[in-house]
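Here we describe the complex-level prediction in full. Unlike the single-chain runs in Section 2.1, the four entities below were treated as one system.
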Amino acid sequence: MHITRYTDYSLRVLLYVALKGEERSTISEIAERYNISRNHLMKVVQELNRKGYLQAIRGKHGGLLLKQRAEDINIGALIRDTEQDLELVECFGDRNQCVITPACRIKTVLAEALNAFFEVLDGYTLADMLGPDPRMRTELIRLLQLRDSSLLKSPVSA
Amino acid sequence: MHITRYTDYSLRVLLYVALKGEERSTISEIAERYNISRNHLMKVVQELNRKGYLQAIRGKHGGLLLKQRAEDINIGALIRDTEQDLELVECFGDRNQCVITPACRIKTVLAEALNAFFEVLDGYTLADMLGPDPRMRTELIRLLQLRDSSLLKSPVSA
DNA sequence: AACTAACATATATAAAATATGCATCTTATA
DNA sequence: TATAAGATGCATATTTTATATATGTTAGTT
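The structure predicted for the assembly as a whole is:
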């Protein structure tokens, strides 16, 4: 059972951009800090832009900003939104071939479990990921080698 | 987000064998009824045998029986047991490269969600899958083209 | 106006995970 | 001893996921 790296990267990008606050982040910079493929990130960012999570500014001194406040980005919604294929097993989808589906409780039970999974995620926002504990935020900033001046003084802003 | 077909087949096999009760099921028969690859099923059955869910009897008139009572086969445990890779994202595993992991709440939250997923599954057994409602069981038996004589008279037996 | 640093898009390729197929072996029983 | 069952190992195919390449667009700077 896996979540795609695509979704994983989406979360990491938003986290990074949120931590950087009002300062613009660039794709190259994020790719470098996380040490991941710039090309793949490109697509991740594009989709986050299209879906209204990020504001992508072109041109010199362009970059990325959050388009919503970190408090308003729900983790459950985000993952449902970026993880395209949530069909846990064959019988969840169209092309289902399984003959017992109409009377099968396996499907029902798995669906119930999946709901429980998302209910937990629905209880968190991006702001929660930044660490309610300021020491954790400081540590994240350090690990990402961000300049922390602006951030540690003011509360998180979108 | 997916569960492997391997796990899906494991569930279906146990369901089939359970429905057939004391009569032996064969791999060929199960493959045919579900219309799935006999070879793949072979491996599924082998593992279920190795892990103590099924009793596999060789030789003429051999076949498969449950080794545990349907009431004792927990769905959560079964899926944890057959789904080998439960590392939702990179940072769950060894070869993790993500630099922020030590201070990252994403991991914590996803782990909590995964727990909720399994907690639901832990609440069900294979017996529950057979349908507490006898009409549903009858329907499953019909869909699988099983002879139902022995089953409808006696309660489910392992 | 031209240059450049940023994101956008489409297409191609590679890598990894999953699923399937095939050939051969072992076991038990009629 | 023939046969019907499962066991095992290796090879192949398929699908999904990830990455790379090449080219385009936008907007600020000089």
